Amino acid sequence: LKVLKTNAELQSWRADQNPLALVPTMGALHAGHLALIDRAKADQCSVLVTIYVNPTQFNRAEDLSAYPQDREGDLALLRASAADAVWLPQSEDLYPDGVLSQEFDLDGLDLRLEGALRPGHFQGVATVVDRLFDWSRADRAYFGLKDFQQVAVVKKLAALRGGIPEIVACPTQRNADGLALSSR
Ligand code: PAF
Fold this sequence. Notes:
Order of helices and strands: EHEHEHHEHHHEHE
Strand order of the largest sheet: 1-4-3-2-5-6
Bound molecules: pantoate
Radius of gyration: 16 Å
Largest sheet: 6 strands, parallel
Shape: globular
Number of helices: 8
Number of strands: 6
Structural class: alpha/beta
């Protein structure tokens, strides 16, 4: 597992990885994330995982500060996984002009259901995912269907970008009781 900390390291590693699959995460990894990695590997891609807890998608500061973080545990899981590299961007890399959301035309997909209860949440997701797509220049990106509305938003974002990367939506992973696995 290559651990990439700077954009320069990312760019130099990325040059030789084709096709490249991106698995964006906020860390606190579990079997749901590992299933995305396995699927990307099965699709014959080089697999880049990102770990970044994105401030612009949190509605409340206390939710952001309470978000679980376990960097060493995550790296141990990734070392034992099929991932080829992990990128650990800093806020300065993704938000050089300040930690603010952009406004994308998401056809109202961001405003209904969960979006109605969490104003700005999906614009924050779209903002960070757009930048992860820009920096990684991934050919494909893998997302779990547990976050069904997020998948719809990310598909719309990819369409706004001309259809690249291709978005691959993967089945929800559940525990023995049927509960969807989640970092929280
Ligand atoms: O699903 C998540 O973990 C996050 O919303 C994502 C896609 C990594 C963006 O921060």
